[in-house]
């Protein structure tokens, strides 16, 4: 049957099935140990380097804003000392994982799709297969693994940078002593706080890696197609990161409170 | 050697190939001619399983390839050199890395031997000293020649070339055709070439097949093609 004759729902189911098969193939390769370590390291370097600067800047600014607002709001209740805790907990439990995932899909995710997309429209996947090499193993697995490994690292960097941003405001604007601020920060973050944020990151990295690699691998229609699939990939990963964040937050809160 | 029976391929309602049958003998240079868009590239891609045919069978060395799985096909394709119409070089690798890729993947050669081998094939295609250039810094014809170098670098027993001479000047076309002919003869390599380049096809081919509207319009030795009474063939080769 021709694709145009199928209903929207049928098309969607076919697409989803195709997505699952794609992920399965990647997963199968990883399970069988068909991982090219050098390629993965290259990806970690490229994806990490590309996003780390902007992640640090955005996190510094967000931490600072949290502290500024916290200073005003908490002062009303005479609870200025809690700025450090508020900043740290907001970042670690919620903001850093989500912000980092969104920045990462806009930078590294878009790059993955655009790169793979231009390979697809220039027959480079076909050429890989023609040379007897599996393009999933050689070109897709390293990019997705890179994604899985880089996003958690970036999240930790974001948390540290955000706390640093809050620290400057807390110390120089709210006039809290530096030692007290740092003590307060360390004291208020419990393991569950860290985990309740950090465990989401693994889901986000899978979402972003999966969507961006799939869209790139299936890009058609020349350079026009590369643009189309890339924007699509970023839009889908934004949407799914935000929706999954809501669902995961609900689940995690009911486990860890 | 290569045996194609009742091969059909359609894209949607567009029938590209309609029950085509032919065979290519071992060590033969077999040229497929036809107008642009007639389905030459699609046919060639089916011969090494890059595209699945709708129906029909293709066997290479007695192995029916239409029933092979992709991992089995990957193994088979290691023994087949393939030149893509647009070169299809990796654009994130320079020429040296592109050419050394099949050697690094499929041979135990050491670095020094790989460097020498790359140098050798580059000089065969008339492109000395471009090792460090990236595909985006090459002209269309140069990309094609690097693509050809990559296709012959493993000295495969089977070579598929999709329009090796299109986009090249007449002299370069002749040189590249001679190169393919020499490489093919030296290794008694079974070679299938698609082309528009009638002069060189008539010169180097052992046999020529002409496709028209999804069917075989003519098949035979160059001398037979030249003396064919068929009006379409006469017009096509004139
Ligand atoms: N992936 C595809 N999807 C839909 N149609 C396709 C696809 N690939 C090829 N076609 C169609 O199949 C026909 C044959 O294409 P093919 O590339 O084989 O032509 P060709 O003989 O190699 O032409 P040229 O000499 O210009 O390279 C064309 O009409 C093309 O539109
Ligand atoms: Mg073609």
Describe the structure.
The complex is a heterodimer of chains A (257) and B (238). With 257 residues, chain A is mainly α. Chain A has one domain (36-255). Chain A contains 8 helices and no strands. In chain A, helix 1 (8-31) crosses helix 5 (135-173) and helix 3 runs antiparallel to helix 5 (135-173). In chain A, 44% of the residues are buried. The mean pLDDT of chain A is 93. Chain B is of the alpha/beta class and 238 residues long. Helix content of chain B is 38%, strand content 26%. Chain B is built from 9 helices and 10 strands. In chain B, the strands form 2 sheets. A 6-stranded mixed sheet of chain B has the order 6-7-8-3-9-10, sandwiched between helices. In chain B, strand 1 (2-11) and strand 2 (14-24) form a beta hairpin. In chain B, helix 3 (95-106) crosses helix 4, helix 3 (95-106) packs parallel to helix 5 and helix 4 crosses helix 5 (140-152). The two termini of chain B are 31 Å apart. The mean pLDDT of chain B is 93. Chain A binds chain B through residues 2, 115, 118-119, 122-124, 126-127, 129-134, and chain B through 12, 45, 48, 50, 70-71, 73-80, 82, 84, 86, 88-92, 101-102, 105-106, 150. The complex binds adenosine-5'-triphosphate and magnesium ion. Residues 11, 16, 34, 36-42, 85 of chain B line the site of adenosine-5'-triphosphate (ATP). Magnesium ion is lined by residues 40-41, 85, 162-163 of chain B.
């Amino acid at each position: 049957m021709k694709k145009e004759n199928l209903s929207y729902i049928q098309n969607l189911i076919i697409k989803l099935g195709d997505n699952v098969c794609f992920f399965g193939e990647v997963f199968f390769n990883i399970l069988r140990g068909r991982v090219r370590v050098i390629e993965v390291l290259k990806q970690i370097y490229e994806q990490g380097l590309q996003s780390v600067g902007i992640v640090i800047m955005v996190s510094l600014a967000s931490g600072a804003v949290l502290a500024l607002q916290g200073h005003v709001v908490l002062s009303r209740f005479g609870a200025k000392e809690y700025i450090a805790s508020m900043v740290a907990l907001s970042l670690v439990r919620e903001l850093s994982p989500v912000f980092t995932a969104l920045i990462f899909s806009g930078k590294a995710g878009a790059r993955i799709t655009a790169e793979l997309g231009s390979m697809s429209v220039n027959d480079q996947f076909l050429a890989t297969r023609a040379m007897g090499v599996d393009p999933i193993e050689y070109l897709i697995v390293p990019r997705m693994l890179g994604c899985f490994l880089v996003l958690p690292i970036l999240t930790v960097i974001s948390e540290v940078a955000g706390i640093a941003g809050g620290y400057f405001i807390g110390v120089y604007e709210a006039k809290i002593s530096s030692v007290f601020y740092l003590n307060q920060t360390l004291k208020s973050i419990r393991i569950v706080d860290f985990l309740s944020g950090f465990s989401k990151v693994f889901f986000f990295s899978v979402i972003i890696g999966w969507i961006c690699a799939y869209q790139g691998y299936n890009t058609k229609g020349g350079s026009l197609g590369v643009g189309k699939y890339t924007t699509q990939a970023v839009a889908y990963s934004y949407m799914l990161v935000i929706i999954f964040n809501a669902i995961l937050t609900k689940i995690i809160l009911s486990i860890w409170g | 050697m290569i045996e194609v029976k009742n091969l059909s391929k359609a894209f949607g309602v567009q029938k590209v190939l309609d029950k085509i049958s032919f065979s290519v003998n071992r060590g033969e240079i077999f040229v497929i001619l036809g107008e642009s868009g007639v389905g030459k590239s699609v046919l060639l891609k089916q011969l090494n399983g890059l595209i699945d045919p709708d129906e029909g069978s293709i066997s290479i060395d007695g192995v029916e390839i239409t029933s092979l799985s992709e991992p089995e096909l990957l193994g088979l394709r290691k023994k087949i050199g393939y030149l893509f119409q647009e070169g299809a070089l990796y654009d994130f690798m320079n020429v040296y890395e592109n050419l050394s890729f099949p050697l690094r993947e499929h041979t135990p050669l050491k670095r020094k031997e790989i460097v020498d081998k790359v140098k050798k094939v580059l000089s065969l295609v008339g492109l000395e000293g471009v090792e460090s250039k990236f595909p985006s810094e090459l002209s269309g014809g140069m990309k094609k020649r690097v693509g050809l170098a990559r296709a012959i670098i493993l000295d495969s027993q089977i070579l598929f070339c999709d329009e090796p001479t299109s986009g090249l000047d007449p002299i370069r076309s002749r040189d590249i055709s001679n190169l393919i002919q020499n490489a093919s003869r030296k290794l008694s390599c079974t070679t299938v070439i698609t082309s528009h380049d009638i002069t060189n096809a008539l010169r180097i081919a052992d046999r020529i097949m002409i496709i028209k509207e999804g069917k075989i319009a003519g098949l035979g030795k160059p001398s037979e093609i030249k003396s064919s009474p068929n009006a379409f063939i006469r017009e096509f080769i004139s």
